[in-house]
Amino acid sequence: MSVLVLVEHTDGNIKKKSFEAVQYAAEIAKQTNTTATALVLGTIADNELESLGNYGAQKVLHVADDRLNDLHARAYVSALIAAAQKEGSKIIVMLHDINGKAVAPRVAIKLKAGMVAGALSYPDLAKGFVIKKAVYSGKAFAFVNITSDVKVITVMANSFPLVQGDGKAAVEKLNVTFGDKDFGIKVKEVNKVTGEVSLADAELVVSGGRGMKGPENWGLIEDLAKELGAATACSRPVADAGWRPHHEHVGQTGGTIRPNLYIAVGISGAIQHLAGVNGSKVIVVINKDPEAPFFKAANYGVVGDALEILPRLTEAVKKFKA
Ligand code: FAD
């Protein structure tokens, strides 16, 4: 009856946000008097798997099939269902990211489970199994009660502060018999993002919009990001115009990020942009138009020309660090 949680890794290194998913599953396990079991797919060392005990997993099931190093949604579903059957799991947790969004609904359909996508709270068991999630691009919240026997939850990253313990999980190999169709998609090429800081995991993000005027000014964004140890992001028109690569585009049709600090430079603050960033803990907006809508969502705002403000801000950060 263990709570099952799918853990992701990159080249054998567990993603920080997966620790959050494990902690989330462990908290539900605690509240429901059971244990948390992590499922890890692909090539990864045992000591990395054991470290999941630090976040509350008692057991780790490892499917050591190197084909699972790339996302094969159907194979992931087969592995999750095999693990859920083995553990008798009625609650399955994964991240609300590209993998989770591809896998969770398929698992929910196969197991006839109710599902909450993008959980922002632990289930309120006093009211049933009620979970808070954002709707309408973060403009409102819904409180969803999952009444089915089996429950699938995808968890929004950066929503639950991570507390590291000192547990060590027991690692067990799990053999899964995959069907012909499980690997029906062939991954031909993987383009790795080689930025200094990965945007998905970044605590600090400096982001530019059309107000930056052109790609020739992006050095100003990068200089500030470098001084802060931040990742860089951009609005959609900036990526569409080819000023920046598409993997940096955040918003409704781009990535969703929840950093501790989001600095938006020359971005108007359209609802489609806010959808990807309004979970940030602190938002700083730099815009020359005092009426720019982004100021309404900002904790701090600077009205002025970004091309003048950015070099001064970078200098100030340098001096502060010295
Ligand atoms: P603009 O709206 O042109 O704003 C530029 C801002 O820069 C202005 O506020 C201006 O005052 C300021 N500025 C200009 N010069 C300076 C200067 N020198 N110094 C400081 N500030 C300056 N957008 C996204 O970002 N992400 C999405 O995922 C996304 N998805 C979409 C999905 C749909 C279905 C649709 C219809 C739209 C989507 N959009 C998305 C587009 C979105 O509606 C906005 O058009 C877009 O976010 C605007 O980008 P921007 O703020 O960079 O540009």
UniProtKB/TrEMBL annotation:
Q: Which domain of life is it from?
A: Bacteria
What does the cofactor field's note say?
A: Binds 1 FAD per dimer.
GO BP terms: namely: fatty acid beta-oxidation using acyl-CoA dehydrogenase
One Pfam entry for this protein is ETF
Give GO terms: molecular function aspect only: electron transfer activity; flavin adenine dinucleotide binding
Q: What positions does the domain Electron transfer flavoprotein alpha/beta-subunit N-terminal occupy?
A: 3-187
Q: What are the required cofactors?
A: FAD
Q: Where does FAD bind?
A: R210, S235, R236, G266, I267, S268, G269, A270, I271, Q272, H273, N287
The record ties this protein, via Gene3D superfamilies, to: HUPs, TPP-binding domain
**What are the protein's UniProt keywords?**
Electron transport, FAD, Flavoprotein, Transport
Protein family per UniProt = Belongs to the ETF alpha-subunit/FixB family.
Q: What PANTHER family does the database record attribute to this sequence? A: ELECTRON TRANSFER FLAVOPROTEIN ALPHA (PTHR43153), ELECTRON TRANSFER FLAVOPROTEIN SUBUNIT ALPHA, MITOCHONDRIAL (PTHR43153:SF1)
According to UniProt, the name of this protein is Electron transfer flavoprotein alpha subunit apoprotein
State the species of origin: Mucilaginibacter mallensis
Q: Could you read off the lineage of the organism from its UniProt record?
A: Bacteria, Pseudomonadati, Bacteroidota, Sphingobacteriia, Sphingobacteriales
